[in-house]
Amino acid sequence: MEEKMKHLEMIQNVITRMASNSFLLKGWTVTLVVGLLAFANVKDMNIDFMLLPLVSALFFWVLDAFYLHEERKYVKMYERVARLNNEEINFSLNARQYETETEGIKSVFLSKTLALFYSPILILVIVAIIAYQ
């Protein structure tokens, strides 16, 4: 039983790290986009400068989707290991085999949780680009 608990703790640490990375990405997205928009000199600004927050937000959205997808695979692993007998525990942290049990990265990218966070940011940047052209 002790081996099973150790393995579950290892998996939980990976899940926690993925969730922490996702949280940090959201913070960096807001900081970067707001910072770029706040310090933009609108009158003398080149429109190409406004593409920087747009591309940054999209990049962070994709990266956040990747971390959420990985986190979901490790949650599946955690659930499976929790059901195993002590004899079957091998301390593997390879979650690749759970790829088929989770949603694809595309559906994670378009999930409600990520879309509700990143869509308003992208809309704000697009409105700023249109307004200052």
Features of this protein?
133 residues, 4 helices, 0% strand
Beta-strand content? under 5%
**Helix fraction?**
over 70%
Separation, N- and C-terminal Cα atoms: 65 Å
Rg calc: 20 Å
Report the principal-axis shape: elongated
β-strand number: 0
Question: Mean pLDDT score, rounded?
Answer: 86
Question: Please, how many helices?
Answer: 4
Secondary-structure-derived class: mainly alpha
Largest sheet: none
Number of domains: 1
SSE string, helices as H and strands as E: HHHH
Poorly predicted ranges (pLDDT <50, ≥5 residues)? none
Task: Indicate the topology.
Elements: H1 2-38, H2 47-83, H3 105-109, H4 112-131
Helix pairs in contact: 1-2, 1-4, 2-4
Q: How would you sum up this structure, described in words?
A:
The chain has 133 residues and is mainly α. It has one domain (2-131). The protein contains four helices and no strands. It has helices spanning 2-38, 47-83, 105-109, 112-131. Helix 1 packs parallel to helix 4 (112-131) and helix 2 runs antiparallel to helix 4 (112-131). The longest helix is centred in the N-terminal third of the chain and has 37 residues, at 2-38. The radius of gyration is 20 Å and the shape is elongated. The protein starts with a helix and ends with a helix.
